Amino acid sequence: MLRVRQDRLDDAVVDLKKAAELKPNEYQAHVNLAQAYHRQKKADLALAEMNQAVSWSRSPPTSTAWRARLYLERKEPALALSDFDQAIRRESPSSPYLADDHAERGKLLTAERKHAEALSSFDAALRCNLEHLRGQRLRADCLFSLGRHEESLKAFDAYLENDQAHLKKDRALESVYRGRGLVRAELGKYPAAIEDYTRALEIRATSEVQASRGWAFVVCDAPKLALRDFELAIKLDEKNADAYNGRGFVLAGQGKAREAVADAKTAVRLGPRTPRLLYNAARVHAQCGEHDRALELVRQSLDLVPEEERAAFWSAYVKKDVAMQAVRRLAAYRQLEAEGGEEGGAEALMRQTARSWYDALFRRRPATRHADRRRFVLERLEDRSLPSASPLDLAVPLHFDAFGQGQVAHVSNFLSSPSEVDLYKVVLQPSDVIAASVRARQDGSGLASLLRVFDGNGVPLALNDLVGGDPSLRFQASMAGTYYVGVSSAPNDDYDPTIVNDTAPGATTGLYALDVRLTTAAPLQPDLTGSAFRLGREAASAGEAVPLSFVVDNRGGADAGAFRVEILLSPDNLFGPTSSVVLATLRRDQLVSRAGGRSFASPAGFSVTLPAFASGRAFVGLRLVPGGVPESDASNNAAVHNGTDWAPLTVTTTVPPGVTNLSQADASLNAAVNGGLAAAEVDVFSFTVSDTLGDGRFTRRGAHHRRQPRPPPDALRPRRPTPHSVRRRPHRAAPDAGDVRAGRLGPLRAGRLSPGHDLHRRNSPRRARGHRRGRLFGGRRRFRQRLATSTSSPPTGSPSR
């Protein structure tokens, strides 16, 4: 045997043959010789030696089990099952090999579709050894085959809770994540299924799992992510028919009927022709308008389903499928429904035909107005109150170190409504730090998310309200207790976590992944950072007031001391000390303190006055100056992200009275015009497009302010519009800032502007008392435009009117 371990197999066989000749009545020599032959891949000789070893009455049960495994390699399952039964009967209850034999026996029964007997074998294996990983995994698969999905999910969880399962990321662990993903998909937990599929792909990328995750993305309304997964699945295996069906389904939803139908045909050609494969191809054809082909494939899929299961198949898949909506009005579909639905058979078809004939001949006419007058009776009902619960009570607890990755909790979920808010609960001790981050946009999701942290009473403690990108924040607990992490759709940043849907909803929906990292026993230090920053206007000229609001969070566990906030104006978003101009400085006592000194907001009605500054794009932001207390992270005191501590602003140049050429006021066309209009008056402004400006887009923005009250609508006489006026919509009460409308003039390119580009401001007699204040800059303008064409173009750099 030493030579066997040294891979000197030929010498080992010679020695073992001599040993068997010297002691022909000893089974061990034949077992050792069989192992040597097996290493040499001589299956017949190995089996012959094992037969001779097992024939001796003194041979242990392990010899029979070993011969069963040889039968498995020779693809003789019946003989292998018989040997495992014999080995289990002879094995001692305390034998360490008994659990393995039960698990192998259950696997054989599973292959023969005897799932109930297989489950008994797996249960017996776990009774012998509760930590038997192979038995746990195979038992979970067996429960899934029996349709006992909740129990299967618990079995997979039990496997993953075993520390030994994570010591080596092998195919067994990959199959567990894949199997649990399938179970969660069957239970409708698609975001969690996507998480499991992702972990399986991290261990080993397979076409099957890639396609399964693609279908989960389809259900979660993430077609871009689904399309990417289906294409990767096809790249891994060009014969994966399920991936072609999935890609075809996504392409059909995008209106690419030709490519979708081609994928469905490829899937049917590749096979195998299972009911699921044919029905998915039918869904693609139905979405692309090929109704006859779709119904033909549905019929073929029903033919493959056993007759006693057709009604369940129809109810579970076809009856409620939105993709088949277009074919439900066809007679062929109704016939299929009668044959495969719950009624089933020719009787149902005859009843349906008779009912249709009866309705056509004796259809009731609509009742007259007074045909059915009923007397209304007031009924007194007893007092009832509906049970309710705070959203905090329904928060999902975060489990750290669930997957052997340190103090990390990972959650995948889906915001299906703009008003939906997901809350997650975590218990922290003093000085514990959590770093939470959302992944949505970077993974291709359409969700623009927002991240908040609350204490146990729902008081907001931290916020990340950035513009664009995915939010993240770091928070340190100052006292022990329960805290909540909230994920919502931006700009829903003011919801109350104790009340359901109490604020205006956000703007987007989609998938997201939340990662929370826990660090314990960190030093207590303050951490000042901006969490929300908004400007009240997009453009301003020198001397004008710019309203702004901001929120500063102390995300550390210690008090921040007497810090101050500086409002800066800078030509870039880096806010360097030499290039920035300080517009205002606020001390801590001048801010509105919230959440017990963990959050500070700007005073109500706060604004800054814009100084003389170069026209064009600029940036207004915060700089947080600590009050002598060291912070855990001083890098986030300025220039972090748009929407959290800075925002862009367009600086404009005021056009002097009497100047109509905007290029004279500001060569970069960042101009602001102030003026009034009389009845039927038109102001015309010209500008020059030169090579200096380069390529770009010219936009305009305007606002009008009423100096006197508008007369009531009854006093306005309708006037027929002329070719030179625009019909005005009924005016609604405007705020003090004026009624602001926006539009675009289109792209401008140096040297390619035709003459006749006039900007008109027209006032009708009904608006003779109005006063308008217009603005021209790299933003927008609400002025009527008239583009007149000419047969000749001016040379580059000449003014255009």
Task: Report what the structure shows.
- This protein is of the alpha+beta class.
- 34% of the residues lie in helices and 21% in strands.
- The protein is built from 22 helices and 26 strands.
- Strands 11, 13, 14, 18, 19, 20, 22, 23 and 25 form a nine-stranded mixed beta sheet that branches.
- Strand 15 (592-594) and strand 16 form a beta hairpin.
- Helix 3 runs antiparallel to helix 4 and helix 6 (77-90) packs antiparallel against helix 7.
- The chain is elongated.
- The protein starts with a helix and ends in a 14-residue tail after the last strand.
Percent strand equals 15-25%
Rg value: 38 Å
Distance from first to last alpha carbon: 100 Å
Please, how many helices? Answer: 22
Low-pLDDT ranges: 342-374, 383-387, 706-801
Helix content: 25-40%
Write down the overall mean pLDDT.
Answer: 76
User: What structural category arises from helix and sheet content?
Assistant: alpha+beta
The 3D shape can be described as: elongated
> What's the main sheet like?
9 strands, mixed
Number of strands: 26
